[in-house]
Specification:
Rossmann fold, two-stranded antiparallel sheet, single chain, eight-stranded mixed beta sheet, alpha/beta, 23% strand, 10 strands, 217 residues, binds 5-O-phosphono-beta-D-ribofuranosylamine
Length: 217
Amino acid sequence: MKKLKLGVLISGRGSNLQSIIDSCAEKSYPAEIVIVISNKPDAQGLKYAIAANIETHIIEHINYSDRESFDKDLNATLYSSGVELICLAGFMRLLSSWFIEKWPNKIINIHPSLLPAFKGSNSHAEVIASGVKISGCTVHFVTKEMDAGPIIMQAAVPVLQGDDEDSLAKRILVSEHKCYAHVIHLIALGKINVKNQQTVDISSKTIESLIYSPSLK
Ligand code: GRF
């Protein structure tokens, strides 16, 4: 089986990376990780990649004077590894317009809220402060505007009485791991296409699997 070649970009913990590694380990899974790139040399996720015998590469942003020269090296590394889909998994760098134009509809991200609500890096705290009762996660294509590209999959996750940022993040993370691997699977099978700049074209049969709502327990 021809497998979709993934490049996973990380900056830290790497739990989403690990869940993708686990999915890729299944023989029938239609994707494989060909490279993991971190902008931080001490990212824990690098250890998971090394343990799985995946090529790793560190491109430290602090060594670059501007965003575009960092992105040029990132782009060259991804191209030379034959990457076909870039998966941002806790990658804490904004990508330049130049880079995003190089990879149209070939970059996906996972965000720990129900977009378009609670964009940015402080979503759990904002969710709790707002009093909403349902949060979740979103897998979306990456466009020039942060956390705003076409939405592919969402999971609804309850916000419970007494939650703090950590307890909510932990509950949402369980769904993140399910959603990210599932979306990659569907993209690899060619089941997800961007219709216009904002919506994703999904057959009615597939759409049911792209709305995930774990129970309140
Ligand atoms: C996840 O919550 C993801 O949604 C967000 O950053 C976090 C990364 O976690 N973009 P991990 O490094 O995958 O454990």
